[in-house]
Amino acid sequence: MTKALEDVEALEALEAAQPRALPAELSIYTATETHAQMLHWVDEAGADGTGPWPLQADAVAQADAAGLQLLLALQHSLQARGRRLLLVQPSAPLRHACSSLGLTGLLNA
Amino acid sequence: MAHVTDDLDQGFIAEALPAFISEAQEQIEQVEQLLLQLEDAPDDGDLLNALFRCAHTVKGSAGVFGLDAVVAFTHHVESLLDQLREGRVHLTPQLSTLLLQCNDQIRLLVDAAVDLAADLSASEGLRAQLVQQLQQLTDGGAAPSQPTAAATPGRADDGEVGVGVGAWRIRVRFGADTFRNGMDPWAIVAYLQGLGELRNMQLDEAAVPCLEQLEPESCHLAFDFELLTQANAAAIEAAFSFVRGDCELEICELEVTPPPRVAEVVADVVAEVMEVLRAEPAPAGEARKGKAREGVAEDGRFIRVQADRLDAVINLLGELVVASAGASLLARGTRQNTLIEANAQMERLIEEIRNGTLQLRMVPIGETFSRFRRVVRDTASQLDKDVTLEIVGGETELDKSMVERIADPLMHLVRNALDHGLETPAEREAVGKPAQGRLTLSACHESGTVLIRIQDDGRGIRRDKVLQKAWERGLLEPGVTPADADILKLIFEPGFSTADQVTNLSGRGVGMDVVRQNIEALRGTVEIESVPSEGTLIEIRLPLTLAIIDGFLVGASDSKFIFPLESVVEVINGDGQLELMQSSGRCCVELRGQVLPVMSLRDIYGLPIAAGSRPSVVVIRSGGRTYGVLVDSLLGHHQTVIKPLSRMFRSLRGISGSSILGNGEVALIFDVHALADLAATERMKRPIRSSRSPVSHLS
Fold this sequence. Notes:
The complex is a heterodimer of chains A (109) and B (699).
Chain A: H1 3-16, E1 25-26, H2 31-45, E2 51-56, E3 62-63, H3 65-80, E4 83-88, H4 92-100, H5 104-108
Parallel strand pairs in A: 1-3, 2-4
Chain B: H1 2-7, H2 10-40, H3 45-64, H4 68-85, H5 93-114, H6 121-139, E1 166-174, H7 185-195, E2 196-203, E3 222-229, H8 233-238, E4 247-253, H9 260-265, H10 268-279, H11 284-299, H12 307-334, H13 337-360, E5 362-364, H14 366-382, E6 387-392, E7 397-399, H15 400-421, H16 425-430, E8 437-446, E9 449-456, H17 463-472, H18 484-489, H19 512-521, E10 525-531, E11 535-543, E12 548-556, E13 559-564, E14 568-573, E15 586-591, E16 594-600, H20 601-604, E17 616-622, E18 625-631, E19 633-641, E20 655-660, E21 666-670, H21 672-685, E22 695-697
Parallel strand pairs in B: 6-8, 13-21, 15-22, 16-18
Antiparallel strand pairs in B: 1-3, 1-4, 2-3, 5-7, 8-9, 9-11, 10-11, 12-13, 12-19, 14-17, 15-16, 17-18, 20-21
């Protein structure tokens, strides 16, 4: 299956399932809660399939380095489970943060 | 930069801002001192470099906090300072004045960052004018270059137009506590973007653990990137100054071909680093890290401690002293010598710790003195006077809170000396004095107190003029001429002014009495000596600390009170006074030919009569007034740790604080000045009746 097709299927699955979404604030001030939420998602990630693992990212209005570090850690954990983090509709602030800190790989994943 | 400001959480800014303000204020103060030093040595390269660095640091840190107004204004100042250090512009007295005015505006803008109510609009016009003048000097009247303040905080290129761009490789691994310390690596990266072009940004993704092993508030970020900039290594390194102690940083120059002019002005520290980079076969990073460690070690000589924490420790030590005194008392009760000795040893050690801790609050007064350089400079030029300020004993230390509170009275005295004391050059030459007047500020320790002297070689104080004013203003009965020393003291009376014309500097007659009050509030004294046409000397004596005093413990009824020992003149037998006391608790006695008002503590505070008391009169002198206080018992010298009164007792008249005695009893500490007022006020309200003998002869 091609990557694009995989992504489309993953997106359809996302719409069907309970949507996972990044919070509006992805920063050190929300890091502990977001981390706990992500751990919960990761626990389920191994069970709900393979391939891309979509995460709605359009709501992110504020991001900092601590928030991006969380995304990287999430990506590592997903990779360990054979999944690939797919940021869906990343917001402009998130795109900007990723590109500033050399994390464009996250956007293109 | 705007995006970083927007994204930085307001809470973080609020937390970190006070530290920035404090640092910036220090830098601004430093700028002022450097400018004043440069007036004597306008070509001193070290001073000029230091000046540039200070302004650059203020601008850079202000940028991190998004204080665009500070950045924009300081940008212009920095540009001129850069030209100064490169020798393209020469520092003239006019330029120095301009820069001092600019520095005042930077101070205003920085202060406004915390004071939301501050209205800067009034000074906007002045700043615009200053900017125009700065631009004319830097650009030779050319079209002003707009500072890209918001986008390029700390941009070092503005002063180095025409200088080649250098390429730097920067590797940084942030410490685990970076986030917890309130720092955001992204903000630093964004700051560097403002210095030039950032490329090949790589984040070490492998350094970040997986979610399960990640502590969300620990930082695992490491970056490797290149920066094309006209800024030098010091400027790049400055971006990391807030995280320097907690990160591994390597800065290597990729193209080491700076034009000779830049090489000349690059800070010494960079030259040293480059030397090591070239000479050492070890990886360049090691050299940089070593340098960074050295810097940290240098910083480590001083620790910034919140004054509140220090106060809390001193407070606890006060408690410890009290507890230890209580333990000693109990030990003595047991009559066990070994226990008594052990307690005595502990008491000595606690005393040493307390003295050592009080020492931590001590700061040199020189910093406060240095501020007067500017005051003297500006005031003298305003008055067309030529005055040199000499500072002696700036290293003399006293309690920090004391230093803060003495600054205002000193300021007034210095201004007074400049305004009233020192003459214009023409006047001085006419009486055979050198044209330049001399004002000396000195400080030294003397018998457990700090002695501050303000001395000028001006016209001195004319006693006849003082007398005349005192008569006119009803401070003295017309025609009455007190002793010479007392005439000068009239200057400190409320509403006194000898100035023929009220100037905007002093002479409103509202200052000197306030000066005396402020000094006395610190348990200090002020004395004045003056020789007409030779000058005036004002001596201020202050206790070393506000936290502890030598007290004289007395009892009235079952209560204990403490007088500050230095205000106690003598103690006389008070047996005969009880029957003289009026219902108000006051009477007068004669002491060596002088009338001494006496008040009874028991009566004033409504205390019950205690059996078996041996009344004594403690003679107190405060602010030139002498009065007696009738007490029931004398309990001797007491080393007193002062505790403030709670809000409930603040209205208690004549009492300034409390102290806890060894046995746990509370003793109230007198405010001898307020007590004197209390005595005087009540006496006026209830004049001594002629039917009862107002004066009694003491045996």
